[in-house]
What we know:
The complex is a heterodimer of chains A (77) and B (577). Chain A has 77 residues and is of the alpha+beta class. Chain A has helices spanning 27-31, 58-62; strands at 12-14, 37-39, 46-48, 68-70.
Amino acid sequence: MPIANHHSAVPVTVDADKCIADKGCTVCIDVCPLDVLWIDESTGKAHMKYDECWYCMPCEADCPTDAVTVNIPYLLR
Amino acid sequence: MNFDDVAIIDTDVLVIGGGTAGPMAAVTVKERYPDLDVTLLEKANVKRSGAISMGMDGLNNAIVPGHATPEQYVREITIANDGIVHQPALMAYAQRSYPMIEKLDSWGVHFQKDETGDYDMKKVHHLGTYVLPMPEGHNVKKILYRRLRRHRVKVENRYQATRLLKDTAGNVSGMIGINTRTAEPIIIRAKAVVMATGAAGRIGLPHSGYLFGTYENPANSGDGHAMAYHAGADLANLECYQVNPLLKDYNGPACAYVTGPLGGFTSNAFGERFIECDYWSGQMMLEFFKELESGKGPVFLKLDHLAEETIQEIETVLHTNERPSRGRFHDGRQVNYRKRMVEMHISEIGFCSGHSASGVWVDETGATTVPGLYAAGDMASVPHNYMLGAFVYGQICGESAADFAQQRSEFELDKTLIEKELIRLRAPLERADGIPPEQMEYKVRRLVNDYLQPPKVSRRMEIGLERILSVRADLPLLKAGDAHELMRAMEVHSIVDCAEMAARASLYRTESRWGLYHYRVDFPETDEQQWFCHSRLYKDESGAMASGTRPIAPYIVSLGEDKDAYNQLRVKQAANA
Ligand SMILES: Cc1cc2nc3c(=O)[nH]c(=O)nc-3n(C[C@H](O)[C@H](O)[C@H](O)COP(=O)(O)OP(=O)(O)OC[C@H]3O[C@@H](n4cnc5c(N)ncnc54)[C@H](O)[C@@H]3O)c2cc1C
Ligand code: SF4
Ligand code: SF4
């Protein structure tokens, strides 16, 4: 069966100006229990790659530069 | 890749799942025998994994001298579970509960204390006083992590265990799994294994339709239940589902444990109290469900009558600790506790002994029915264990597994199991196209909601089982585009296993028990003659899913005159009517 691309708006945003992933930080990526935060290859910054979030907030709480914001997923808002 | 291409890691005691019970088990082994080698394997990262990733609002079931005795606790939980408990296991928890609180306290976990320095216990249960708030409970994971470091437990983060291994004599001897970022297989050979993979929280679908909006941490997808089943372990009373009273569309507890002692309560649409007691039990959930579906529904958390300072206190706890995104959820809908009641609803179903009573069968030593395998926390069968029970049984399993490992002689791994599993693990990556895990997961979980959610109807569940089996037949079609999707694909295997278990276990027990959890419309009565027993679910010699019964061990605490207390939870006449 062929597979289509499927878009969804993700709940977690990263402020690229504040994110210091390019200096080696991976804190939010390390702590996420669902492993949905990854480095965006094109920008070198952290971003939400998979829309599979428990809105639990370790990513936001542990980010050293306050770059992460966890929003409630759209379906629940 | 073949068996010979994968390096085998050796350890004495392997702990699978680094949430709550797992780290305690690992540390306990080291405290007991510092020379034993201990490996803790975690699907996420032990720093922030599991149910308590952000902290916890309180201990729901603490037995503190001067407030309650172990006997009182065992009696209350037996009554709340309609008699179907293994009392020796409850007693082991009850007796160790207080020493565990003191241990955690000495490690730096903050519990609420009164002016005199005593633990500030609250009454939430129907009969006794067992709730200990921890409004500063954010640091539990940090404290556990420090202990893991101090005892030099080897931690393997981002590995998903997928199958247990056995030796040629049938003893559990380790596990096989995958790295969730590289899809590399991992094989660990161990002399004893403790499983602490949490609840099976992704069987049902939240009403919002968001796959990851479950009550349980969605990393807890029932892998442990599936692995134990395939290794030949018994599971018990799976028909006693977990169904929780939550906020509508938000997966945190409402939470009457925090608000109850401060004057909040669960109400109907008219602001009337309709249940005597907010402690989570099947009987309470049945009254909740009836009210929800009645002309007086839906159900609400009522706080709008409280004083400003009380509401501020509630907001501080509920919006910062265990589920800190809750305040944002309310803000998005302009919900203010001062102005209006907050709509509630019931959760999807799950298997979770932390809140309910079902799981992998263990006795009072934490032993499953397979030698070498121990289980603790939400996945094991000790009822109403909650967080403190996860710690206590983590400790018990750590001790038992350490002793088992100490006296175990040399053994040979059963290679056929490994070869078979390597093929299963590889398949979704090798397919050119197929069904993405998300789609198959949605389908099976939607079927669970449609056919298995209580009230349970026999014919409906039979159709549900048939439909779930048709998804099982599709499992070979799973297609993963990357390592992350491979993890999700292997989770779908576990979810399908758990869905089938939920259907079969529910069909097997032909009576109603545990209030809403096993409310069978066509068998509405509780049948003490035939069904005063545990139900078993296991894999028989032919590899089929089989059911059976296990007698209830003789009670060590009699129930006395309160034995029907949990069957009288409805308020006789609405309190403020
Ligand atoms: C929202 C919420 C609120 C709660 N509130 C309270 C409360 O106020 N008071 C209270 O006493 N209790 C509360 N509980 C219950 C309590 O938190 C749990 O009973 C307890 O933490 C369970 O511990 P556990 O070790 O069994 O599971 P967890 O702590 O969830 O750990 C399971 C771990 O296993 C890992 N894992 C899963 N599958 C695999 C695999 N295949 N391979 C490797 N690792 C795997 C997971 O990533 C996770 O880290 C609450 C639970 C929830 C979900
Ligand atoms: S923790 Fe913050 S700074 Fe670090 S990678 Fe994540 S967003 Fe960037
Ligand atoms: S809120 Fe939780 S699940 Fe979502 S990205 Fe952050 S850490 Fe991961």
